[in-house]
Amino acid sequence: MLTISSNKLYRPLQAVTGIVERRHTLPILSNVLWELNTNSLVLTATDMEIQVQVTIDITPSTTETSITLPARKLLDIIRTLQTDSVLTIGQKETSVKIETGNSKFNLQTLPAADYPRLADANKDKEIIFSLSQSELKEKLLQVHYSMATQDIRYYLNGLLIQKRGSTLEFVATDGHRLGYVSKPLQDSSPDTQFIVPRKAVQELIKLLEEGDSLVKIRKGETQVTFDLGSIELTTKLVEGTFPDYQRVIPKGYTKSFSISREELLHALQRAAVLANEKFRGVRWVLSDNLLRVACTNADQEEAEEELAIEYSYDPMDIGFNINYLIDVLNNTKVENINCAVADENSSMLITIPGNQSFKYVVMPMKI
Mean pLDDT throughout 327-334? Predict the structure, then answer.
């Protein structure tokens, strides 16, 4: 049926297997669909919400066939082989035989005709916008951690992508914090907005590579497709209306200070060792040119760090969830950040000095 090197097959198979759940009510969803054409091998996996499809160019073949194979078993087999192994893959009724060197494997198949697909409705849709893979990955990384996990407000369990005029915006919030980042877009396409589910965002980040190759985004009524060239990710969209995030982002805060991102991150990571495991609270005590961060736990243990800053406003003692602060510092790869506050009961705004495109809002908590 097919002869192919393990090198050529491993990464595409890894790309599609990422969305395959280990346990399914439908056994066929644990499989990957193989479609062998004259000049290409197309691998497809789906969980009924997301579909990932990879096209591999192959040596011209006279065989055209479609089968489904156990995704994770196949990936594990190829992972354990030497990187330059040549696989000979042959089909027998309800099984597939894989041979390489002295190794032989027989895998059970399920009919390709039974394999479910997301509708290819986006194939005929126009590209609503495109940007480089590295740019899209950078923007998603800057805000994805603010998505809710299993909120009953289902529209928070995803990431908003919105085009307004010549600006492309990415927003995520779980109700306790909000991440916002934007970039200018040089095109005249109509304004649009849609919410990409959490799992699709996480998979997309894994698939995107560094570089200038373009991602083309095509949107249907209920789905969106991210076309990365040889890889396509299609996902159902989250229904509902995203909150008015502009109202959440503070304006006019005057009490602010700049601090080294790494210095603050390391101080918080050390303090977090003794933070309360359930509430994860940290106190920020601001005084004249000094930031003191302190954590305590149920065993009355305490961690305290002092950081020199340029701050000459009223003293303040504010509580935050330490994980929310560590998240933003881990995902914002800059030298310094700017922190702005109003009072002890208001949110804090974190920005990047000289960069108005990124904003992170974190709500205070009582400690």
Answer: 96
